[in-house]
Write a structure and sequence with these properties.
- The chain is α/β, with parallel strands linked by helices and 227 residues long.
- The protein is 55% helix and 8% strand.
- It is built from 12 helices and 5 strands.
- Strands 2-3-4-1-5 form a 5-stranded parallel β-sheet, covered by helices on one side.
Length: 227
């Protein structure tokens, strides 16, 4: 069975992938996957044993059109019932990318709820109560960990757009996304954005090192009050 795990909710999709992986001792293969890797894994079981599943990260997203991708897609189409393989991609794939593996593929799509983007797009300075209300509404569909990750990303993009930075993350945005970020960034001064982004990174470091003095949700509440 071919399973493709993707979507813009990277945290949820990653947890699903890891949950499946933790039930197996097979290694995780990156985008350097080859047809030989698949064939070897398919023959790894004993005479009466089912071969272990294969776990692959980033292959579909990072593969350029060509012989390797075409050979693997063709082989998996023909042998989908005999091979157990999980692909995890850190973004949502296109219909064309999904269709190249045939109709037998199982697709697990993890999407970020609309109220998450409503929370991020609505962030404004000196609007603490409103920011917190939007945050708590977004918690109905997303974890505080994911929302914190998205907060860091949002202010990184706002800072980049306001300073005309050409980081890859901005280059990949559609014109309408850049325009919306530019409009939001005007609500903040450059100094405010730098200060906010630094504070978010300080919280992130404290969280990773066990230095937070209160739960992450309450920490975010206080942060939102202060921006």
């Amino acid at each position: 069975m071919i399973t493709i795990i993707h979507g813009d909710d990277t945290s949820a999709s990653r947890n699903f992938f890891i949950d499946k992986k933790d039930k197996s001792s097979a290694p995780v293969i990156d985008e350097k996957l080859t047809l030989l890797d698949i064939k070897q894994q398919g023959s790894s079981g004993g005479l009466f044993e089912k071969p272990e599943a294969l776990f692959v990260e980033g292959f579909i997203t990072n593969s350029k059109p060509g012989k390797n991708l075409d050979e693997i897609a063709f082989y998996l189409k023909k042998n989908s019932k005999e091979i157990d393989i999980y692909f995890w991609e850190r973004k949502e794939l296109t219909k064309k990318q999904l269709s190249q593996f045939g109709p037998a593929v199982t697709v697990e799509t993890f999407k970020i709820p609309k109220n998450t983007f409503g929370f991020l797009d609505g962030l404004r300075p000196e609007s603490g109560k409103r920011n917190i209300e939007f945050f708590h509404d977004a918690l109905s569909g997303s974890s505080e960990e994911l929302l914190f990750f998205m907060l860091i990303r949002q202010f990184r993009l706002l800072l980049a757009v306001s300073s005309d930075s050409s980081i890859d993350e901005v280059k990949r945005l559609a014109p309408w996304q850049k325009s919306k970020l530019a409009s939001q960034a005007k609500s903040f001064s450059g100094e405010q954005l730098i200060k906010i982004y630094k504070k978010l990174n300080d919280i992130d470091l404290a969280q990773k090192t066990g230095g937070l003095t209160m739960p992450l949700r309450e920490t975010i509440d206080i942060f939102l009050l202060d921006i």
